[in-house]
Task: structure prediction
Amino acid sequence: MGELRVISRPESMVTLGLGSCIGLVLYDAEAKIAGMSHIMLPRPPQNKPDTGLKPGKFAETAAPFLLESLMHAGARRNRIRAKLAGGARMFNLPSSSKTSFLAVGEQNIKATLSMLEKLSLVIVSQDLGGTRGRSIRFDTETWMLEVKTLGQGVKEI
Amino acid sequence: MNPLQKDVIKEISNIGTGHAATALSQLLGRRIDMAVPLVESIPLEEVCEHFGAPEEPICAVLTRCEDNFPCNIVFLMPEEHSARMGDLLLQRISIPCDPDHIEEIRESALAEAGNIVLGAFMNALGDMMHAFMPLSVPAVAHDMLGALMDVLVGIYGISGDMALVVNTPLSFPDDCDDFTGRVMLIPDPGALDSLFVQLGVA
Result:
């Protein structure tokens, strides 16, 4: 949660029980490098300096940080692709401005997608929103993201 | 947070969960034991593991209080126990159930139980603070523990990298040894500070 990890082939990465959070994967298939970030919130709190807070926690900081980590590990900017899953609404309460904490999934999706667009990163596949939690695994042999939902089985994107 | 403030939260949780457990006991016609509330500071990434495996199927009933002390109260239990609790509730009210709609009716029974139980929690807290604590309608969710915790841990994540986890385990000593239900209190960011001011322990 809020964590960020970079691996190379043949390792794989897993995040179990993603709810409103987003699992963002960036990879360079040619350099055989991939990274995953478990994004929790759209952005760092306004009233706090972001020093000391984990960059992997927020959509606005996680994507640039993950990109930089990949390039540092030898990936090439123009070959890097993105896959992502998560951002569910786990508790369905009638919406009011004050329940925005519970709608954090939608906010995470919006912030992550707009950050990827800003960084001009190509999204290969995504499985976002809905009301069910997901477990994800990224395979560096096939470059597929496996998404498991309770009671609905597994799919590859 | 100082030791006095920690005690205040513990006591609030104790009184609130006490009333909630009594309400649940009356609803189910079963004896319920309640443990001492736990107030622990845990790094965000460890909160889920603190309660169990991330993929464990869980039922959670959540309600929110918006005024006076903005917070979320959540009743968590293993999925297998939620089905059993739903059945117990339905037996108690002895409404003949249409088998085609048993899932929906059970779901509605769980939501209503959550409403009564978590309402008892907030009423006790309101009495203590001489304030009205209106609750939202309850939301019931069945999913992986990690996915449900994600949302709750996110609320703590707004203010820092640590979560102040306030929870009280419940058990049914007479007929269900392994029941591991618990009531969690998750204040909105900043809500605890104003609570401490109101209670004179700021």
Remarks:
- Chain A has a mean pLDDT of 87.
